[in-house]
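User: Need the bound-state model for flavin-adenine dinucleotide:
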Amino acid sequence: MPVSFRFDPVDLPPEAKALRLEVREFLREEIAKGTFSPLSTGRESSWSPEFSRKVAERGWIGMTFPTEYGGHGRTHLERYVMIEEMLAHRAPISFHWVADRQSGPVILRYGQEEVRREIIPKIIAGEASFAIGLSEPNSGSDVFAASVKATPAQGGYLLNGTKIWTSNAHRATHMIGLFRTSPPTKENRRFGLTQFVVDMKTPGISTRPIINLAGRHEFNEVLFQDAFIPEVNMIGEKDMSYATASAELAYERAGPDRFLETLSTLTELVRSAGPEPGERVAEGLGREIAHLKALRRMSLSIAGMLQGGKTPNVEAAVVKDLGTNWEQALPGRVRHLLPPAEGDESYAAVMRFNTLIAPKLTIQGGTREVLRGIIARGLGLR
Ligand SMILES: Cc1cc2nc3c(=O)[nH]c(=O)nc-3n(C[C@H](O)[C@H](O)[C@H](O)COP(=O)(O)OP(=O)(O)OC[C@H]3O[C@@H](n4cnc5c(N)ncnc54)[C@H](O)[C@@H]3O)c2cc1C
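Assistant: Bound-state model below.
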């Protein structure tokens, strides 16, 4: 068991720096064409299959996936730079985001060859999008209490039950879902769960919208009623998904999206404060940038670990916990420093939206308390 964690400094190689300029250029062109706005209030949909296909044409989906599956065989550091630019510009990347970040890597690592050959090229082409099927009405933080059943049927399994909070399930082409294939054992309560790749068009699957605090339809209930899933779609070994699902969560928590989701709070503050912000605002801004810089350095270090073939569960939990707490408190601190001036609708709208979505930041992808539990275990404290 690890008893510590570390964040070795990582320097970006020249190819990553060159890529940053290339991505910026692409994004500037798209902004100039009116494809999206970097000053969006966040209310606009970031789900755009068209934009994802353009990103795919550039070779920026599946960048780290092996070339034998059509991937681009590039480094995690190059991918990091590309993501950073996409997030900082508020590019509409939701369609391919989950597939590129976690579903693709999980399928590559644990999926069956036939499914890899079928799905991975679609992810890379910007044609397949994924939902995450973990949470259920009685199983959120305690992922391994999942109870949606997968019962054996001719050539596969029948799914029955309800998942909840499933982001984008109403528009994703696929899901990786966690299902109960056997009861837990006395020795291992995590035993008995199996992940499958689910085609969302399968008969017997339906979704019901849940409208979030900001008034948007992003997450859903997903109902399975005798939905058939072929055996070949199984990920890893039957009943043993506690390992594959943990790896998926590490991929989910590892990226800079965990502190860049509401970066517009800061960029709007900078714009509104102008070139001479005054001592108080400059000091406050300096503080926030220092936090951001430290988070970024830690997160980049995680990209270095991924490049080294590691699964940095604990480090990812540290960055997600620190990053989301920082980001959640940001609108309050920024409003205190410099509230939107009368008539500055852009700043006001960004603040409104980022305040409304702040509560979710420390819940999605694992709550604050759960992450701290993981960190404590990683430090050998529990
Ligand atoms: C915006 C958003 C998007 C989401 N998207 C998805 C998705 O796409 N797919 C998906 O599967 N899920 C998704 N979720 C669900 C999310 O993963 C769960 O909400 C989260 O895991 C918490 O589970 P819960 O809501 O059941 O709360 P609970 O697990 O019931 O937790 C309630 C409270 O108890 C605390 N708590 C629970 N267990 C412990 C413990 N052992 N020790 C200390 N405190 C504890 C929690 O920290 C929390 O404060 C999303 C959530 C949000 C907010």
